[in-house]
Amino acid sequence: MEAVDRAVLERLADELGDHEAVVEIVRGYLDLLPGRLGELDTAPGADDGPQRLAAHTLKSGALLLGAGALATAAEQVEHGRGSVEDVRREARSAAREWRRWLASALARDPRTP
After folding, report:
1. 1 domain residue, yes or no
2. Total count of domains within the chain
3. Helix (H, G, I), strand (E, B) or coil at 71
């Protein structure tokens, strides 16, 4: 299974009628990803509410942008059953795929910012 289903990104662009908007959404998600992953770290015995919120946010964005494995891993953490390391691993894989998709999107339309 691919880390990112590119068909999801293309459908999103079709639905929005704006390929450039999807490029910007993916770029924004990539920019925010390190911070969200950092929010997954909690001290032992600390309130896990912020961790669960970060996992929920990661899950939602991953689903929107075609990263099913990342969404599943984040959902597990959100519900207190998963491993933060699994989320990090899936996030690295998805980020690589999103960057490849961005490169191909920019190659198709160099006017995209």
Report:
1. no
2. 1
3. helix
